[in-house]
Amino acid sequence: MNTRALNIALAVAAAGLGTAACVPTPETAAAKQPATDSTAARQLAALRIAPADTGAHYNRDDWPHWVSVGNGCNRREDTLKAQGRNVTTGKGCKVLSGAWSSRYDGVTVTDPETVDVDHMVPLAEAARSGTRGWSENQRTRYANDPAVLVAVSAKSNRAKGDQDPAKWLPAQDRCGYVAHWVRVKTTYAMTVDQAEHDAIATVLRRCDSETTR
Fold first, then answer.
1. What's the distance, Cα to Cα, between the start and end of the chain in Å?
2. Which of 58, 78, 158, 168 has the most beta carbons within 10 angstroms of its beta carbon?
3. How many CA atoms lie within 13 A of 164 on its CB side?
4. pLDDT tens readout for residues 17-34
């Protein structure tokens, strides 16, 4: 870990990862819990609709991620261990092998070098969603919340980029994807723009229709 990352990790620990009510601890984050389509619809209806905050204020370095989680592991390595099968690690918790089922495209990835750990609501999208006033501790907490992170194929993650569901949806399990998206935005009291809201609502209506057939 470099000096800056170590200082960030120590600062986060000392500050208790912040105390703002809108940013819960990873262990208690509501986004960890599964949600039905009807729950997602209710959560979506409760989100504040606002234009995306597209001012030139996003800097990836302002969202410190992959902080140390103990036992020599950082959050990325810990996520790969938690979401993979038969994962082996080497010196310094480096992930050497395993198998990961990519939620976005159904691809099974066996090379840890080609697995991406994605933020369900990308950092740039989070920055556009009413979080301009967050402190560094709050941004760090979000960027390292296990309930936000998803191990997926690099190809699918590149296709997604920082796009919201109005512009990109995965090849499979779109119902689960938008429900997870809404849970994260609800947990962190983020906003949605109108096009994003409408796209998610459309998917959820289709999911509900398929469930009731």
1. 52
2. 78
3. 23
4. 333 334 443 333 434 444
